User: What shape does this take?
Amino acid sequence: MSSGVIPVREAISREAWPFECLHCLRVWEEEYVVHRARDEQGVDVVVWTRDDVAVQPPWSGMTCPACGCGTVTTFSTGYLAHRPKITLGRPPLDTPLDAPLDAPLNAPLDAPLDAPAGEAPARGAPFASPALLTLALLLLAGAGLYEQLHVR
Assistant: This one.
């Protein structure tokens, strides 16, 4: 019988995980150092670290750095490398939470969101004004009320 000492071999890798917030549509990437090893009983052990601190795996408990929402999705590794239009990284701390994604970070908050003629509006720009939506809802409610009153 052996002395009970089993050599443990550890593999270390770097993985970049892209995320998108399903609330504010912010896209960013987090880099992890992954330590994979097998313990004395032969069980695989995986430890995820960021900045030399053990953290949860990327698919567990991630929140958006911009709005704090926990509804976050991940992409496959390398997804953002094929899409150069998407800006990587966390936003600066002084970035307003409601700033449009395509607007410059130093643009004034009252800058118009309308796109020039022939171009699509910026991502995050309202599709229709609140007044137009309110008017449409009032017309629908009024038509339903009118129908109910005149049917009897």
User: Anything to note?
Assistant: Residues 102-115 have pLDDT under 50 and may be disordered.
